[in-house]
Design goal:
Layout: H1 2-19, E1 28-34, H2 41-44, H3 54-60, E2 62-68, H4 76-85, H5 89-92, E3 98-101, E4 106-109, E5 118-119, H6 138-145, E6 152-156, H7 159-166, E7 172-177, E8 182-186, H8 195-202, H9 205-209, H10 249-252, H11 265-280, E9 290-296, H12 298-306, H13 311-334, E10 340-345, H14 354-359, E11 365-366, H15 372-384, E12 390-394, E13 397-400, H16 402-407, H17 412-426, E14 430-435, H18 436-439, H19 447-455, E15 464-468, E16 472-473, H20 492-495, E17 496-497, E18 499-503, E19 509-516, H21 520-528
Parallel strand pairs: 1-9, 1-10, 2-19, 6-7, 6-9, 11-16
Antiparallel strand pairs: 2-17, 2-18, 3-4, 5-8, 7-8, 10-18, 12-13, 13-15, 14-15
Helix pairs in contact: 4-7, 8-11, 11-13, 12-13, 15-17
Length: 546
């Protein structure tokens, strides 16, 4: 009888425990975005990495191996916004890095704001804010759930990489001023830089990193995972005659500090400033969860210039691995093992260099983009007598003068369809043309059309989207436009990105189940027990949230 009573009591206790929500939270969340990171890089470079950076994250954390962007265009601005809002550009409104805004009747930048001014600097570099972001972020929701007591800070060399993740209610966002080499902000967040940020700038780390040549961190003959150093698929620094190591940064830099972005030392500077922010803001020091948004941009600059098969790209990731080790060690010592949560993903990946593919007999090519707008104007002149119906061609999208078309009593949908059909039939490399009229009314079953539809925002996106064939793009970098790489398409090479979770309440393991990039924010919402972002369309990741 006593045994039965004991078993019944234990059963009741276990049931009560199972029904009691977990109110614990990590002391600090660190969201990491590595700009232009492909999921194969870490495995490719595995034997060159240490044990305390990426390897530690993968061995002790959880790897969502099949994480995809569920929209296009796959650019930096929309990518950062989608990670943190849990929705796509069709909802949060960041339709590109730049777009033609019908309401403003002008091309606008995703983070520009004429109503704010620079803090810690001067000029247009500081006239930035999240004012164009139309939904809340997971960081906004954390602020709301703590009555604005949480500390939320965004940091990136790129202003949009710091501003969009931190959200509209952040304590601060900081980005790099290439003119001065300093970290700056805007009056959206503060009236003056905090003392810790001023002290960091006064140390002149940018000057220090550009005072030495960029040499490979390992002997150059070890970089067997990359093409030879002198490759025809790599663009040059201005002033160089060959894209080879060592790169003489002191001789190449000129009078500004912008060159730092295109070296791995830009990532190290970002990491250093992130650690300074944790200390200066006392992040993770109390029971209220704080959130640091770190975006590492140099991988994107290096990737665009050199492409995915360059020694420069490999060296950048080997050095980033050491930065990750420094960050994790710092968090262990400052916050405590198991008391912080880290996730790492990318805002997009990148394509193989088309010329590299063609030289290896793989179908690829370059779209003759320089003549697309003129060709379409000629089409409308022949068909309607009005070439001026086309406003501009941005982000592979055709924008029309709808007011002129309506004034002439012409059919906008018919004109869109004419352009889409002509582009597919007559412009080399165009796989598909999709019209705004169809995107805003039709339901699609195939992935490519769905991704374009998820990226379409009326009034910010174009009237006609041109989707290039797999492996095709516009001209790239360098003298003949065939060097380096790019991104932006709905295809897997741009959309498939890494997603690693590490630390607080994260099990060790991996999964190949499909995860959309919009699933990160709702997963964080459930882990932190806070409200979903208000435009969220993603789902929690079941392997992490039971």
């Amino acid at each position: 009888m006593k045994k039965l009573l004991l078993l019944a009591a234990l059963f009741c206790i276990s049931q009560a425990s199972a029904q009691t929500p977990n109110t614990n939270r990590p002391r600090l969340v660190v969201g990491i975005v590595v700009d232009q990171m492909r999921p194969d890089y870490i495995i490719r470079y595995w034997n060159k990495l240490g044990n305390a950076g990426f390897k530690r994250i993968l061995k002790e954390g959880f790897n969502c191996r099949n994480t995809q962007y569920n929209y296009a265009p796959t650019y930096t601005g929309p990518g950062h916004a989608s990670i943190y809002t849990g929705t796509t550009p069709s909802m949060h409104g960041i339709a590109g890095n730049d777009w033609f805004d019908v309401a403003a009747n002008d091309t606008v930048y995703c983070a520009s704001d004429e109503k704010v001014t620079a803090v810690g600097g001067e000029g247009r570099e500081g006239m930035m804010s999240p004012s164009r972001l139309l939904t809340t972020t997971i960081t906004d929701q954390l602020q709301l759930s703590t009555q604005m007591k949480a500390k939320v800070v965004g940091i990136s060399l790129k202003d949009r990489g710091a501003i969009l993740p931190a959200g509209r209610s952040a304590d601060a966002a900081y980005w790099f001023d290439g003119k001065t080499g300093n970290w700056i902000s805007s009056t959206w967040y503060m009236n003056s830089l905090p003392k810790w940020a001023q002290d960091f700038n006064e140390r002149k780390w940018s000057e220090e990193y550009l005072s030495q040549p960029w040499k490979t961190v390992l002997p150059i003959n070890y970089y067997t995972e990359s093409d030879p150093d002198d490759s025809p698929y790599e663009a040059l620094f201005r002033g160089e005659t060959k894209p080879v190591f060592p790169h003489d940064l002191p001789a190449l830099r000129g009078t500004s500090f912008d060159l730092l972005r295109r070296t791995p030392f830009g990532n190290t500077l970002t990491k250093d400033f992130g650690l300074a922010a944790i200390l200066g803001e006392q992040m993770g020091a109390d029971s209220i969860t704080d959130f640091l948004c770190l975006s590492f941009s140099s991988t994107d600059y290096v990737g665009h210039q050199y492409g995915p098969n360059a020694i420069e790209t490999e060296d950048t990731y080997i050095r980033l691995d050491r930065d990750m080790a420094d960050l994790l060690t710092f968090l262990d010592n400052r916050i405590g093992k198991g008391k912080y949560l880290v996730y790492l993903t990318a805002d997009h990946a990148c394509m193989e260099n088309p010329k590299h593919m063609m030289d290896h007999k793989i179908h690829a090519g370059f779209v003759p983009s320089a003549g697309i707008e003129d060709s379409l104007r000629s089409l409308l002149n022949r068909t309607y007598g009005h070439p001026e119906y086309i406003r501009c061609f941005i982000n592979d999208q055709v924008y029309l003068h709808e007011d002129k078309i309506l004034a002439d009593k012409n059919d906008i949908c018919a004109i869109e369809a004419t352009i889409a059909r002509y582009a597919k039939d007559h412009i080399q490399g165009v796989y598909l043309g999709l019209t705004s009229c169809d995107l805003e009314t039709e339901s699609y079953d195939d992935m490519i059309r769905q991704r374009i539809q998820n990226g379409h925002f009326h009034g910010r996106s174009g009237n006609v989207w041109l989707v290039y064939a797999p492996g095709w793009t516009e001209r790239l970098y360098g003298g003949d436009g065939t060097q380096g790489t790019t991104h932006g398409s709905p295809y897997a090479y741009d959309a498939h990105v890494p997603l690693y979770w590490f630390g607080w309440n994260i099990p060790a393991g991996s999964s190949t189940d499909l995860v959309n990039i919009t699933d990160i924010a709702p997963t964080l919402s459930f882990l932190l027990n806070i409200t979903l972002p208000n435009g969220c369309t993603g789902n929690k990741i079941d392997a992490l949230v039971k």
